[in-house]
Amino acid sequence: MAGELDHPPITINGEPCPEFKKTFHVSKKVTRARLYATALGLYELKLNGERVGDDYFTPGWTHYESRLQYQTYDVTDKLVAGEIEWTALLGNGWYKGNLGWVGARDIFGDRLALLAQLHIEYTDGSEEMIGTNNSWQVTASALQMSEIYHGETFDATATTSDWQVVETIDHPKDILVAQENEPVRKIETVRPQKLIQTPNGEVVIDFGQNLVGWVAFDIEGEAGQKLVIKHAEILDGDGNFYIDNLRTAKQTNTFIIKGDDKESFEPHFTFQGFRYVQLIGFHDNQLDLTNFRAVVLHSDMEFTGDFTCSDPLVNQLQSNIRWGLKGNFLDVPTDCPQRDERLGWTGDAQMFIRTASYLANVAPFFKKWLRDLKAEQLEDGSIPFVVPNVLIEDMKEPEDTTTHKPYGSAAWGDATVICPWTLYIAYGDERILAEQYDSMKAWVEYIKSQGTNAYLWNTGFHFGDWLALDAKPDSYIGATDRPYIATAFFAYSTSLVRKAAKILGKDEDYHYFSSLEDHIIKAFTNEYVTPNGRLAVPTQTAQLLALMFDLVDNKGKERAVCKLQELLEESDHHLTTGFVGTPYLNHVLTENGMNDAAYKLLFQQDYPSWLYQVTKGATTIWEHWDGIKEDGSFWSTNMNSFNHYAYGAIGDWLYRKVAGLELDEQIPGFKKFMIKPYTGDGLDYVEAKLESMYGQIRSAWKKTNTGIELEVTIPVNTTASIHLLNVDRDHIKIDQQNPENIEGVLLVTNQGKDTVVTVGSGTYEIVTSL
């Protein structure tokens, strides 16, 4: 893009937010007009006072040093004959604002700037281009303060008459890339549930749902009246407004009334995570709940999956998982949306991506983020803990005596391998593997270069089984040996790179990574498996990783399964796992003959469990199993998010095992797939739907007096194998419900104790008798 970058003068740079202006004249009829824009900071454009586009937080958050997105808008209908005033409002956003928990600012740059071009085509064949240059003007806007963590202050009484000439600067243009992800948009509106007067006398609105976005309202009042809205996720045990878990994030929006009839307020460049808002400065006659609304914002993904069942608590859990995605998929996959963090933690993303792929079409969302991950990767192949990386200082956990660099942790850095692989199998697009392949290889080579043993990863800092319940007192890191976890993920990532090499036709790499994987598993066995097959690390997570990643077989596998069962019995059938172990827990149980134990874990309602959170009123997934303790008190205020999607990875098991919607890695993207439901005590019926690239896939089963009725829908141009567990072929009846569209039952075979029905497209009802 040609054009100059408009910089506000140093005196108008963030607080108040700068507003740019350019006036031009349209004297002919317009055939087409396109507007291109980007900024250092966040921008909002208007033509004659009308907002351009429905995108928010543009140009988005990227690795700004190498990638700066621009957006394209069709503004043909906004260019009518006469004078046009083009304005642009800028905010600090991720580029210049406060990021991280150490108060860092200006991480990517210290001055805001705008770059824009307007291309106009007229009916007479002529064209005109208007861009940012020194003919623009700038002033301090009525937006007095804007920070992602802290909120905004808007003074409607402020004037914008002191217009100054802009300063133009040179800035690299080769970093510009077109919008890649679906932009952040207003997705839905949530209305207030009730108005509360707390024991402390606070006036609070309860929206009934922990969400991410902002509160908009309409109001009438006197000029200069100052209205303050604070945001919180929960009330404390006494029913008072609780914000201690926000740490330094203020999450406060302030509006100063102009006093001209009814006014409307909503923020521009900030977002809040909240269910409750405290109203300060409002008069009693201004508290009509119909004037308030919560606007939900997130990346505008197409939602593709739906899961319902006979248990209302499990249905609420599913809702909580979905709202966790909504709240944290805002341009980047954030860990939490409320405190002074909101960062793209790599570990959280790889733990949840498989579940996310059932809930929504997340391919564009993650492709964009993975490009930034690749851009942030260091020359030695290591990956930062967060992407984009804003952790500018070395880190030290409470139990550590030394500091460590903010990159290179097992299970976190492995996102560079696990995420592309998951996108490939979920959507069948080899291009994501081709694009990320060098990054995937570099990460594995980085691990191999650590320490004196190329096949054991026993050096460096690792988060381990983060927040596991078997941790030592005052520790965030679980009891599972961290080099054990690191080596297990070393083997797993190597296996995925091996598979990617095979798919991409890189035969030499395929053989190399096959050999490397064999060596890692052998080293793992020598280090952590006794001659009798017992794992040396006796934790739930240790058994899970060995079984999930195929690190043990034969006697070793049998002993790991037995040990896992023993550990569950010791914990009275409760989990002790953290971020690393939990995503695999129920899968491993179901796949190793302990499906009853998996169901028992799902239905536990006391601490620790998924449904414990639900019984405590959760409407999103918590960061800690006991974010609210059984006595009503809270976990430590320094890290207690109530909207943290990592443990929502149980959704993957609900779709893939309970409902049975399982893809085939050999023919990915649900071109060929299985429907293999694992029924269990506690559920009378289950229904799951997935809008695949080929159409809707559906699995619905219910228990009857004589057996199970399973109804399935298979899209055109796909093939499915329906696995009926422990059912003889003589005990099934298949009804083709829409025979005009049916390719027919292709094959019914016995596989061990299971009967497999291979079918083409259509809807089938399968009745099994005992």
Automatic annotation (TrEMBL):
Gene3D superfamilies: 1.50.10.10, Galactose-binding domain-like (2.60.120.260), Maltose phosphorylase, domain 3 (2.60.420.10). One of its GO terms (molecular function) is alpha-L-rhamnosidase activity. The keyword Hydrolase applies. It comes from the Bacteria. It catalyses: Hydrolysis of terminal non-reducing alpha-L-rhamnose residues in alpha-L-rhamnosides. Residues 28-187 form the Bacterial alpha-L-rhamnosidase N-terminal domain. GO terms for biological process: carbohydrate metabolic process. Pfam families: Bac_rhamnosid (PF05592), Bac_rhamnosid6H (PF17389), Bac_rhamnosid_C (PF17390), Bac_rhamnosid_N (PF08531). Keywords: Hydrolase. Residues 197-298 form the Alpha-L-rhamnosidase concanavalin-like domain. SUPFAM superfamilies: Six-hairpin glycosidases. Residues 304-658 form the Alpha-L-rhamnosidase six-hairpin glycosidase domain. Residues 664-734 form the Alpha-L-rhamnosidase C-terminal domain. It is an enzyme of class 3 (hydrolase). Its EC number is 3.2.1.40. PANTHER family: ALPHA-RHAMNOSIDASE (EUROFUNG), ALPHA-RHAMNOSIDASE (EUROFUNG)-RELATED. This is alpha-L-rhamnosidase.
